[in-house]
Design goal:
9 helices; 14% strand; globular
Length: 428
């Protein structure tokens, strides 16, 4: 009897050790590179503890505390009550930002939808020409973008633009949006996680000048974005990048950012919320006078995918009207950045009807908490490590660190053979 009990105990112990050893194995993720299809799918499943990670990049309502080299993300006071607090994320790892089932072989299958044939889509936008000698508002065949590139040039170090009038012809068919589906992109974060934009993972090797793509958004997402002229990356065939800044509230850093752009003769694009428009007249005047593009970041910085059609229109028009009341001679706002990057085809389509091209980003970092700013060199090196052709950087103007590092960062970008161009150079 004792011998049998001893034998059973030994067998149980061996089975337990075997199970523990198996659970501790590391599964290597092998992504398809963009040059091999660009769909960013993995050939192995993501471990269970990785499946619940999500990336809430560019959320003005998040507060970041960085202790002992780690980041803890907690919801800020203005976060929607329906959003759950995300788990800590390693923002530099190849798996950061993968939606809940991005590593699952079944959910990673591409279910590509062919683009709509000309004449079959009811967006009904009439393309308006800018009359520019340095470029036009032409759009590629089949695109539903309200405009494309438009002319720009430098005069005495200041960027000048041939901005077309806002093309709102699509509003004639806005009624269709009341029944248009509000489904998320196929590779988006899954409910109940918020549907915030996350970019693909790209790393830059300064010693070789090469950018390596770990994974990317699905082709179906990129094709839908392109269909409406939405911007994720710019020109990926050249060493070019774009500097964009979100302005929610002013914390004293924007003037230094403008100083750096002026001194380095670099163009920027500033996305403004309603409160910013109504309180920062002098800074916005500098943006306009010193040759920068100004865009719409909504009135209340809400998740636009959860609003009604009428509420979306009101969020946009309120900012437009307040902006025009102060700057009646300024060009129309033509670019829209969705708060927290919350975007789907329903929103892209509404914005296009209103005359906007939606702009997300291909790299950002946790820079937006004015009370938890990064170390100078940590921030600078983080931005350097993600440079790539067509990179759209999202920086927050409330960051004092961004204001400090910007002059050196611009010099470094150019030292790598890259040029910095305005958003209007990106075609549709």
């Amino acid at each position: 009897m004792n011998r049998n009990r001893l034998t059973a105990a030994i067998v149980s112990l061996l089975l337990c050790l075997s199970s523990c050893a198996s659970a501790g194995k590391t599964i290597v993720l092998e992504p398809d590179l963009p040059s091999e299809g660009g769909v960013g799918r993995y050939t192995h499943s993501v471990p269970a503890d990785e499946e619940n990670k999500d990336m809430n990049a560019e959320t003005d309502s998040l507060q970041i505390s960085r202790e002992a080299g780690k980041e803890e993300v907690t919801a800020g006071p203005d976060s929607p009550e329906t959003e759950k607090t995300p788990a800590p994320v390693d923002w530099t790892s190849s798996s950061a930002g993968i939606p809940a089932d991005a590593g699952n072989a079944e959910t990673q299958k591409q279910q590509e939808n062919p683009p709509s044939e000309g004449g079959t889509d009811s967006l009904s936008i009439d393309v308006q020409q800018s009359g520019s000698t340095g470029g036009g508002s032409d759009v590629s065949e089949g695109s539903l973008s309200p405009f494309g590139t438009f002319g720009w040039r430098q005069e005495n170090g200041v960027y000048k633009y041939d901005v077309p009038a806002q093309n709102t012809s699509g509003m004639a068919t806005i009624a269709e949006m009341y029944s248009f589906p509000t489904t998320r992109f196929e590779d988006a974060n899954k409910p109940p996680d918020p549907d915030n934009w996350y970019p693909g993972q790209v790393t830059y090797d300064e010693s070789t000048g090469e950018a390596t793509y770990g994974w990317d958004r699905w082709n179906s997402t990129k094709e839908t974005m392109a269909k409406y002229g939405a911007i994720y990356r710019g020109d990926e065939t050249r060493k070019v990048c774009y500097l964009t800044f979100d302005c929610g509230y002013e914390y004293g850093a924007t003037a230094k950012i403008l100083d750096a752009l002026r001194d380095k003769q670099a163009p920027g694009a500033f996305m403004l919320t309603g409160p910013y428009v109504r309180t920062q007249h002098d800074l916005i005047k500098r943006m306009l006078d010193e040759g920068h593009i100004v865009g719409n970041h909504t009135n209340n910085h809400l998740d636009m995918t959860k609003l009604t059609v009428d509420e979306v229109i009101d969020e946009m028009r309120t900012v437009e009207q307040d902006f025009k009341a102060q700057f009646p001679d300024a060009p129309d706002m033509l670019y829209f950045r969705p708060p927290a990057g919350a975007v789907n085809e329903w929103l892209l389509r509404i914005e296009a009807k209103m005359g906007y091209r939606t702009i997300t980003w291909s790299y950002t970092y946790h820079d937006y908490d004015p009370y938890a700013q990064w170390d100078y060199y940590d921030a600078l090196n983080t931005l350097k490590e993600h440079l790539h052709p067509g990179c759209v950087y999202l920086l927050h103007a409330e960051s004092s660190t961004n204001a400090e590092i910007l002059p050196e960062f611009i010099d470094w970008i150019r030292s790598q053979g890259y040029v910095i161009e305005p958003l209007c150079a990106i075609g549709a």
